């Protein structure tokens, strides 16, 4: 057991295999198709993305000022770069899988153009919030964090200017995540 649970890649592989077995076992009751597989992936990546967003905003960022200076390097040099890797790729894959679900369900254009009504309009609002959030991740937060963490060269002034930009974009994402989640779960499009 220790070998299984001590290896994250093995745990993920077993989890995926178990999910596939469940999909196949229940296929007569819940068809396995492009839409159902991408919905599952969309939920997985969405949980990873928003979970890391909340970790950063509720735990890491608020605690950084109280961490002793000699220990900050462990966070900024090791933890934060790994968190930000999973954070930005979870955002990317959440958006891609969500767009595939909307396309496979036949409402992509209606939702993005607000041409739909009711649930399609609601999901469109959620989709646009997610797109703004993903833009923030890739084009505001990540470039700023690369400077802050020393991944790219930056002067002290550039690092100081990058910190509030990253914080505002991250807090905007936290703000948008709350109504975005409501839109996604309440639209309930099959």
Automatic annotation (TrEMBL):
<keyword id="KW-0812">Transmembrane</keyword>
<feature type="transmembrane region" description="Helical">
    <location>
        <begin position="7"/>
        <end position="29"/>
    </location>
</feature>
<dbReference type="InterPro" id="IPR016988">
    <property type="entry name" value="UCP032086"/>
</dbReference>
<protein>
    <recommendedName>
        <fullName>Urate oxidase N-terminal domain-containing protein</fullName>
    </recommendedName>
</protein>
<feature type="domain" description="Urate oxidase N-terminal">
    <location>
        <begin position="96"/>
        <end position="187"/>
    </location>
</feature>
<keyword id="KW-1133">Transmembrane helix</keyword>
<dbReference type="InterPro" id="IPR010389">
    <property type="entry name" value="Urate_ox_N"/>
</dbReference>
<feature type="transmembrane region" description="Helical">
    <location>
        <begin position="41"/>
        <end position="64"/>
    </location>
</feature>
<dbReference type="Pfam" id="PF06181">
    <property type="entry name" value="Urate_ox_N"/>
</dbReference>
<feature type="transmembrane region" description="Helical">
    <location>
        <begin position="85"/>
        <end position="108"/>
    </location>
</feature>
<keyword id="KW-0472">Membrane</keyword>
<feature type="transmembrane region" description="Helical">
    <location>
        <begin position="114"/>
        <end position="141"/>
    </location>
</feature>
């Amino acid at each position: 057991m220790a070998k299984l649970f001590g290896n994250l890649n093995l745990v993920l592989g077993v989890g995926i295999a178990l999910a596939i077995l469940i999909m196949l076992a229940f296929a007569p009751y819940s068809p396995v198709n492009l839409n159902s597989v991408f919905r599952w992936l969309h939920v997985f990546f969405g949980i990873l993305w928003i979970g890391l967003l909340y970790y950063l905003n509720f735990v890491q960022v608020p605690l950084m000022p109280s961490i002793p200076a000699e220990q900050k390097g462990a966070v900024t040099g090791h933890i934060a770069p790994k968190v930000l890797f999973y954070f930005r790729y979870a955002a990317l894959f959440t958006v891609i899988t969500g767009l595939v679900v909307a396309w496979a369900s036949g409402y992509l254009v209606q939702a993005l153009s607000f041409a739909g009504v009711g649930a399609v309009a609601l999901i469109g609002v959620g989709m646009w919030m997610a797109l703004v959030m993903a833009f923030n991740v890739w084009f505001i937060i990540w470039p700023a964090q690369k400077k802050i963490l020393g991944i790219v060269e930056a002067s002290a002034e550039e690092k100081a200017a990058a910190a509030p930009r990253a914080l505002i974009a991250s807090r905007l994402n936290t703000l948008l995540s709350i109504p975005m989640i409501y839109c996604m779960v309440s639209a309930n499009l099959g």
